[in-house]
Recover the amino acids of this structure.
């Protein structure tokens, strides 16, 4: 799975990535009670090894139309914790294949949502549910649905133009 360069922040017990020094986000550290190491990995071209090494994927975005990294993490079998302002939240069933935060700036809520998946059994079940959900969202489906929207808009434009019902949408 090839992905665009991105910056990954990972909390891991089994794996720590060394990243650029001095770039750690202020106020972030280890999840309470986890003993997990955390490092800012910096830009990476291929995140597959990070997904394999991770237990949980968290992306508390202020805004994302639809984060592909959330879909990739789900496809890799990770429960995803993200925000309502990330379009990917629409495919997350809270507590089943991940968790959704209402306020991306609420650190206590983020910690609580991550904590839902600290139990290995629950994390494994949520990861499998995430993998199944991600499998429903293929590029072929995405393209097909996008083309359907365009075809519907063109058809609506033809109906309006034929009936003299106002301006068309597409010329």
């Amino acid at each position: 799975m090839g992905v665009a360069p991105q910056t990954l922040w990972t909390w891991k017990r089994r794996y720590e990535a060394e990243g650029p020094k001095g770039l750690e986000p202020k106020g972030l550290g280890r999840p309470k009670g986890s003993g997990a190491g955390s490092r800012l990995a910096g830009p990476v071209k291929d995140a597959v090894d990070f997904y394999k090494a991770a237990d949980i994927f968290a992306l508390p975005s202020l805004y994302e139309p639809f984060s592909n990294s959330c879909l990739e993490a789900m496809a890799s079998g990770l429960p995803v914790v993200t925000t309502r302002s990330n379009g990917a939240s629409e495919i997350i069933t809270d507590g089943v294949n991940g968790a959704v935060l209402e306020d991306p700036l609420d650190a206590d809520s983020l910690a609580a949502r991550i904590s839902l998946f600290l139990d290995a059994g629950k994390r494994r079940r949520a990861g499998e549910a995430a993998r199944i959900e991600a499998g429903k969202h293929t590029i072929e489906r995405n393209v097909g649905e996008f083309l359907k929207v365009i075809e519907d808009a063109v058809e609506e434009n033809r109906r309006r133009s034929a009936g003299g019902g106002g301006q068309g949408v597409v010329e």
